[in-house]
Amino acid sequence: MPRLCVDFGGTNIKMGLADGGEVLRSVEFPVGGSAADLDAIMAAAVRLGADATEVDAVAMAVPGLIDPGRSRLVLAHGKYDWMTGVDLAAWARDAFGASAVVENDARAALLGEAASGAARGARDAAILVLGTGIGTAVMADGRLLLGPSGAGGNLAGHTTIDWRGPVCNCGNIGCAEVFGGSWALPDRIADVVGSGAGEESEHWRARLDAADAIGFAEVFERAAAGDPVAVQVRDQAIRAWSVVAVTYTHVVAPEVIVISGGVARAAAEVIPAMRAYVREHIWRVLDVPRFVVADDPANSVLRGLAVR
Ligand SMILES: [Zn+2]
């Protein structure tokens, strides 16, 4: 019997019909940002050829912390505020008459990469999903960390890397995300512009006033062209990701670290810098983890749910 897989992503909801651990076909549609998304999922399931009698399980990945019973999202931001506390497993049982499981998205992505992707065969692996935030998950001795709270391995992006640093959106001080999450880019750019760096600041002053979000793609592109503000902000982000990789290496000593998320597109630039930083800063007795890019970052969550 096939399984329905649902990836609640930041921009789109992706759905796949999987059998035997493989995604057979998939559809996606934009996130609505309300409980109506669940109705849209039922309609899309019909388009996938999976009506209520045809799936034996529904696996869902959500962008936030899940409860230890794996039935609901306990903390989310933005478009998924409405979902906090909703019993998704109960919804799936009602809607599809199927067993259900809810998984954190970074954990699902790591599972996908370990099962059939860039970390295939690894028993000790970690993932950095670099984009709006820093999503993390850890596999130790073949098992995904979960812990009694359900958050095991998920919050490495909120390790403090500067205890005198800016306050994070989580309330902690100087988290890696404050320097390496795109949500914080306006503040970091403003810091550099405020310090009086370069005449290129005109561009960033205008961008900070504009309503549309600033992403790493823009920062990397301008840094490559020599924009001094972009260079500082880019290098600071790479340093933040590298520091998390050092912490990963010291805490769980993974054999492989998977880089995924939007920043994976700049992997050719990012990974050598991270590898060099880690090599220089970890304890000498440890091996430098292998850094790999997710095979198909947009689909690693669905592939993980297919084997979950
Ligand atoms: Zn934080």
Structure in words:
The protein has 308 residues and is α/β, with parallel strands linked by helices. The chain has two domains: 3-110 and 299-307, ATPase, nucleotide binding domain (Nucleotidyltransferase, domain 5, 2-Layer Sandwich); 121-295, Nucleotidyltransferase, domain 5, CATH 3.30.420. Helices cover 37% and strands 21% of the residues. It is built from ten helices and twelve strands. It has helices at residues 36-47, 88-96, 105-116, 176-180, 185-194, 201-209, 216-224, 228-252, 267-281, 300-307, and strands spanning 3-8, 12-19, 22-30, 57-62, 65-66, 73-75, 99-104, 125-130, 134-140, 143-144, 256-260, 290-293. The strands form three sheets. A five-stranded mixed β-sheet has the order 3-2-1-4-7, with helices on both faces. A five-stranded mixed β-sheet has the order 10-9-8-11-12, with helices on both faces. A hairpin with a 6-residue loop joins strand 5 and strand 6. Helix 3 (105-116) crosses helix 10, helix 5 (185-194) crosses helix 6 and helix 5 packs across helix 8 (228-252). It starts with a strand and ends with a helix. The model has no long low-confidence stretch (mean pLDDT 92). It binds zinc ion. The site of zinc ion has 6 residues, from loops.
At a glance:
This protein has about 300 residues and is α/β, with parallel strands linked by helices. About 35% of the residues lie in helices and about 20% in strands.
CATH architecture of the largest domain: 2-Layer Sandwich
CATH superfamily of the largest domain: ATPase, nucleotide binding domain
Q: What topology, given as strand order, has the largest sheet? A: 3-2-1-4-7
* Oligomeric description of these chains: single chain
String of helices and strands: EEEHEEEHEHEEEHHHHHEHEH
Biggest beta sheet summary: 5 strands, mixed
Could you tell me how far the N terminus lies from the C terminus, measured between alpha carbons in angstroms?
15 Å
The value of Rg in angstroms is 20 Å
